[in-house]
Amino acid sequence: VIITSKEAAEEVLKINDLECCSRPQTAGIRMISYNCKDVGLTPYGEEWKALRKISVVELFNAKKIQSFRYIREEESDFLVKKFTESSPTRSPVNLKKTLYTLVASIVCRTVFGINLHECEFIDEDSIADLADAITLIEKTHLFSDSFPGRIGRFVDWISGQSKRLENVFSEINTFNENVLDDHLQPERREQESSDIIDVMIDMMSK
């Protein structure tokens, strides 16, 4: 549906805002969000309000964001060091990949508590592949998304689409399980500041 008039925009964004503010729940979206348990993908309602409150109060408050400042500084220093090392030899630098790695490193340490330069189960290259896999699942539109029911699921199965989607998702799920297993290890090295997974595990244990 394409909104092309002022009246239609008002109808969607103001009058019927609650009915139109949730994202489409495709098979890929449901899979990657574990049946829409993600705050960004949960349909608008009481559950979404509760998740949003947790995100604002516990996960992304000003104090928590400030506590991650040292991570941003360390990763930025590491980037400058790499540039400095490649300068004498005048080696070409893939700026797009380098900046992507910087962002990925900061996000991984902040959210998952893993250092891409030291982690055993994922590195700088595989995290990029994982991000591509997430994008692929989000963009994938199965036949059953338009024609739900047995016929739609049968077409997904016979075309191999659902199997391909499951194979891609298994990589993401394996990563998530590795992150959780790492956090639940009793001998896990204590971090300077608890990451977002630490906070969520702590909230679940209360």
From TrEMBL:
Pfam families: p450. Keywords: Heme, Iron, Metal-binding, Monooxygenase, Oxidoreductase. Its cofactor is heme. Signal peptide: none annotated. InterPro entries: Cyt_P450, Cyt_P450_sf. The keyword Ion transport does not apply. One of its GO terms (molecular function) is iron ion binding. It comes from the Eukaryota. Belongs to the cytochrome P450 family. PANTHER family: CYTOCHROME P450 71A9-LIKE ISOFORM X1, CYTOCHROME P450 FAMILY 71 PROTEIN. This is Cytochrome P450 71B29. It comes from Noccaea caerulescens.
